Structure formats: structure tokens, C-alpha cells
């Protein structure tokens, strides 16, 4: 009797294991949705469409980008957090995922309901100033700001945006007096920077075109070391200012899925996404979009997000950054 019960128990365990692995083996069984909590046409949307196109080919099922902007990415992120954990709903988002955990009281979702899958790309921020600003490097900009309190204005794409938080960290670390000027998007901010209405802006490599035309100057980049795309731009961390020795600024773009997704299915999706990202075609498409291709294991991405929260949380609280 004992032997028979033991055999039945072992058989049940094998059946359970087979059933657990079934979703991974058969995935996907229907179209896959990638939620992007930003408007169509932005860099996160462009990245999502690059990945979706190649995953469609790999999975032999349509992979559809679903733009759900609004409430500082809260709407789309909440939808992904509430989705069933069958692998057919993914989320591609950016820095807002981290910032909203501090900026938004009473989030309508639990961040733990989403499991980080991998970073897909990085985008380091460049420090641009109007050509009339009498500074050609970071130490000179700091000296100018200290000699002219209240005169240095930093533009951003909006309250709580990554350019805003980067500028606040820069000001906090260096002890300069800075006036923040929020705009509704990068376009208006760049226009006023070029026009001289504001002094400085942290922005992507795309704005480098105004440096080439002489309308702006670039004083540094928020990467820990020089990058191949801009080898002559000095990292702010290497500018010789001790308070900025570990300064980084920029944005990450990553993929998440509901935490309820079985581990084996998470591993399968990760392996397929990684295979797509490692192709030369996708690598070049990401670079063309103005981003730096990146890839991390799930564990490394989770650790990265934890450090991200530890880095930016004190800045947001100390500088009293709000979305309104």
C-alpha cells in the first residue's frame, strides 16, 4: 500500500511539473500585447516597435504595441500590473517606473506585481547650454552659477521628468542656485534653450545637432565613462569636480511582465528577447533611435532598479520635487 501511494505521489509530482512547464513550451498561443505607457512616436514607443517587429517573426504570432499614455505612465503601468500572468501582456517602460514610486502617493498598483525582465537600452543625458552661457566645461558652469545666483535656468520636459531630476541632482551636489523651468515636452524646452530663454538642459544625443550648428554647447555627459557614440564628450563624473565624482544621468528602457507569470515562462520570454536584442539588425536600429543597446539578466535588472530607487529617492525628497 505504501509503495502504491508513493508511486501515485511521484506520478502526481511529474504531472504537476509537466503542467507547470506547459505554458512555456506552447507560448505564445495568441497575439502578444506590449503596453507602452507613453504616447506613440516617442523614443520608448520606437524601441517597443523595434522589439515587437522582431518578436513577431520569432514567435509567429502578432506582437502589438499598445500605447496607453497618461498620469505620468501610471495608467499603462497599472494595466500591465493587472494583466494575467500568461506571458501575453508585457510592459516596456522607462525611468517613470522608478520615479512614480516616490512621486505618486497611493499608486493604483503594487510595483511588486510586475517582474523586471531585462533592460533593453540606455540613454545617457548630455548637459547642453545655450551658446551665450560663458562656460565651456562643467567647472566653469558651476563657477558662473555661483558668481551669478539665480541667473542659471535649467529647462526640463516637465516636473518629475528625468531631465528635471538630473538637474536637481547636479544643483544639489554642487551647491549652485538653479531655477527650474518645466515645459510640456522636450520640443518646447529645446526651442527655448536654442533661443536663449533658458540656460541649460539635460537631454539626449539627438540635441547634438544644435551643437554641430553652433547654437548650443555640450559640457558633459551623464555616463560613468566616455561612450563610443560621443568619445570627445567628457563624462560629468570625470570633470574634476569631487562632488560629481559618481554623477550619472540618463534613462533606462526595460521590459516587465506580471509577477504571476510562471518562472519557466519568464525564462523562455527572456531568452527570446535576448536573442532578438543580440542580432546586428536590432543593435543598429537601437543605435539609430539614439539609444545605447543594453542587456541584463533578470537578477541584475532587479538589483539595478533597487539601486535606481536608492539613488533618486533622496534627490526627489530633498529637493521636494512634485509632479504638479
TrEMBL record:
Keyword match Signal: yes
Alphabetic keyword roster: Signal
Coiled-coil annotated spans: none
Signal peptide positions on this chain: 1-21
Family: Belongs to the UPF0065 (bug) family.
Protein name (database record): Bug family tripartite tricarboxylate transporter substrate binding protein
The organism of origin for this protein: Polaromonas aquatica
Amino acid at each position: 500500500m505504501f509503495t502504491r501511494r508513493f508511486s501515485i505521489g511521484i506520478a502526481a509530482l511529474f504531472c504537476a511539473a509537466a503542467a507547470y512547464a506547459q505554458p512555456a513550451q506552447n507560448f505564445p498561443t495568441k497575439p502578444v500585447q506590449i503596453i507602452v505607457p507613453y504616447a506613440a512616436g516617442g523614443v520608448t514607443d520606437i524601441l517597443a516597435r523595434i522589439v515587437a517587429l522582431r518578436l513577431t517573426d520569432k514567435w509567429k504570432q502578432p506582437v502589438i504595441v499598445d500605447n496607453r499614455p497618461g498620469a505620468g505612465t501610471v495608467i499603462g503601468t497599472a494595466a500591465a500590473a493587472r494583466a494575467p500572468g500568461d506571458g501575453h501582456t508585457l510592459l516596456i517602460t522607462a525611468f517613470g517606473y522608478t520615479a512614480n514610486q516616490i512621486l505618486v502617493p497611493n499608486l493604483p498598483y503594487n510595483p511588486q506585481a510586475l517582474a523586471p525582465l531585462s533592460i533593453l537600452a540606455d540613454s545617457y543625458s548630455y548637459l547642453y547650454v545655450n551658446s551665450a552661457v560663458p562656460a565651456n566645461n562643467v567647472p566653469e558652469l558651476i563657477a558662473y552659477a555661483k558668481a551669478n545666483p539665480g541667473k542659471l535656468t535649467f529647462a526640463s520636459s516637465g516636473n518629475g521628468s528625468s531631465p528635471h531630476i538630473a538637474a536637481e541632482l547636479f544643483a544639489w551636489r554642487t551647491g549652485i542656485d538653479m531655477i527650474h523651468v518645466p515645459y510640456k515636452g522636450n520640443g518646447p524646452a529645446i526651442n527655448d534653450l536654442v533661443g536663449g530663454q533658458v540656460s541649460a538642459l539635460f537631454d539626449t544625443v539627438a540635441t547634438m545637432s544644435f551643437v554641430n550648428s553652433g547654437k548650443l554647447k555640450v559640457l558633459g555627459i551623464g555616463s560613468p565613462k566616455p561612450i563610443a557614440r560621443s568619445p570627445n564628450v567628457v563624462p560629468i563624473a570625470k570633470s574634476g569636480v569631487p562632488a560629481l565624482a559618481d554623477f550619472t544621468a540618463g534613462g533606462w528602457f526595460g521590459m516587465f511582465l506580471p509577477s504571476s507569470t510562471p518562472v519557466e515562462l519568464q525564462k523562455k520570454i527572456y531568452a527570446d528577447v535576448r536573442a532578438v536584442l543580440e542580432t546586428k539588425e536590432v543593435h543598429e536600429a537601437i543605435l539609430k533611435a539614439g539609444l545605447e543597446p543594453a542587456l541584463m539578466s533578470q537578477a541584475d535588472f532587479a538589483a539595478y532598479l533597487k539601486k535606481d530607487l536608492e539613488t533618486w529617492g533622496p534627490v526627489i525628497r530633498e529637493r521636494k520635487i512634485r509632479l504638479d
